[in-house]
Amino acid sequence: MALTRDQLAQRVAQEFRDGYYVNLGIGIPTLAANFIPKNMNVMLQSENGLLGMGQFPLDEEVDADLINAGKQTVTMVPGAAIFSSAESFAMIRGGHVDLTVLGAFEVDCEGNIASYMIPGKLIKGMGGAMDLVAGADNIIVTMMHASKSGESKLRTQCSLPLTGKGCIKRVLTDLALMDIEGGKFILRERAPGVTVEEIKSRTEGALLIPDHVPEMSFA
């Protein structure tokens, strides 16, 4: 069974480590803020100039002036800092973000990512994605494995304009967790109830399948 958006965010949060500075992209990645383990100190960074985002606010906690880069209202954790977007991008470009989680339209088996435009469609735009993929070594993409029409988003070669080249090493989809190495997707985990055959049939790019592929754990 394919993962829900919340399950994708929960699995992404398992990639966090104590003391990390983490940037969460728009969409599914932002939901990971709700699944940080209580005993873990993670500082979430936003391109508009906020370090130390907390969970999404309850109705009585909403502050319309406190938003993330996607213009969603957020909360702050103790020790949070607010600064200019110029300083925020200096942090990103200087390599001071430990983990970046991005959404994407396509990723290919060379680690290229297309995430900012679909010709002929109105999309929010680049945002900070190009700076993030250029300034971060540790990036995980979370996305749907295939389009609504069933076309694979894990491509041999991206068909859409690229955000970055050769920068993606790990992809989490609603069907599987994969690493990208040597021009291939390497299947690491599969969603509960999803078969290796189903993942293979929905992956266009070259796919390496180890002898044992465990199901994801959400314990």
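The above is record 1. Record 2 follows with the same two-line structure.
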Amino acid sequence: MAKKSMVERQKKRERLVAQYAAKRASLKEIANDEAKPMEERFKARLKLAQLPRNSSPTRLNNRCQLTGRPHAYYRKLKISRIMLRDLGNQGLLPGMVKSSW
């Protein structure tokens, strides 16, 4: 189980990313538009830098939905390898069978 503080920090980042997504996208569009004058593009970059750092989507980490574990994360299932094994052994994941040889 991950530390509660780390899981809560991740949730806070997710909220900030959702909150500033539209503003960030519009500023990036202005900053990357070659047709706009250089001053306007520079001002857009400055405004982009003024936004909170945690509102950037690259600051998000993939974490297990059940335990909060950040490593060995399966994107398709959104759980860690340990929970995948536990749930598979309990028969809670459809299509997964315990292997034995």
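Residues 1-61 form a domain with the Helix Hairpins fold (CATH 1.10.287.1480).
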